[in-house]
Design a protein that fits this description.
about 80 residues; mainly alpha; about 70% helix
């Protein structure tokens, strides 16, 4: 598996978040309702705060970008 594929697995679809019939992020969107955007914002802030202190800082930056993409997607969905 290439390094890029490893990144996709650990950032976009980690195995430990895909154990049931629904991916964790989809469950959270459904369960949190309007609070989902705050959850996403909190995760963006968490990864942006700690990336400098990690052995693999780029992975945390990619995770922040992933959550930002989900936040944008969620806002576009809410506007329609």
């Amino acid at each position: 598996m290439s390094e890029e594929n490893n990144w996709n697995d650990s950032v976009n679809h980690p195995k430990h978040y895909n154990q049931g019939n629904i991916e964790c992020i989809d469950y959270l969107r459904d369960n949190l309702g309007e609070g989902f955007s705050y959850y996403l914002e909190g995760n963006i802030k968490k990864y942006m705060h700690r990336w400098r202190y990690k052995k693999a800082p780029v992975e945390d930056l990619r995770k922040a970008a992933w959550y930002l993409g989900k936040l944008i997607e969620n806002q576009v969905f809410d506007e329609h």
